[in-house]
Design goal:
single chain, 129 residues, alpha+beta, Heat Shock Protein 90, 30% helix, 29% strand, globular
Length: 129
């Protein structure tokens, strides 16, 4: 089962729609226990791609067996950096820290002229509920 959406540069209004589609896929596959975390991490990666690059992005979520993999592609060559958030920096700088803390695995890989930032979550046995 897969979700694939192309998002225009700075199209932040698409983020809730991506979350909703992801939630539907996870619920249909018995991934209720990881839905909140999956939505949060997907929101972080999609928002980073749309705000911190000047390019379109594509989000792909794949459920296989009991594992969710979300990938966000963009055509910016620079890789995101994990940084320690500064207390007085509002909400900036926390996205990748959340991904690192909550995902079972995550990473960044070069893809053509751009990159893919991804994470995986164990759905705890998976299968329809």
């Amino acid at each position: 089962m897969q979700l694939r959406r192309r998002l225009g540069h700075a199209e932040l209004t698409a983020v809730p729609e991506v979350r909703r589609a992801l939630r539907e896929i996870l619920r249909s596959r018995g991934g209720r226990s990881c839905t909140d975390v999956a939505e949060l991490l997907t929101t972080e990666l999609v928002t980073n791609a749309l705000v911190h690059t000047e390019h379109d992005a594509e989000v792909t979520a794949t459920v296989a067996a009991s594992r969710l993999r979300v990938e966000v592609r963009d055509s910016a060559g620079s890789h995101p950096r994990l940084r320690v958030p500064v207390a007085d920096d509002g909400t900036h700088g926390r996205g990748l820290v959340l991904v690192q803390a909550l995902a079972d695995a995550w990473g960044v890989r070069a893809q053509g002229v751009g990159k893919v930032v991804w994470f995986e979550l164990d759905m705890g046995g998976g299968g329809p509920a």
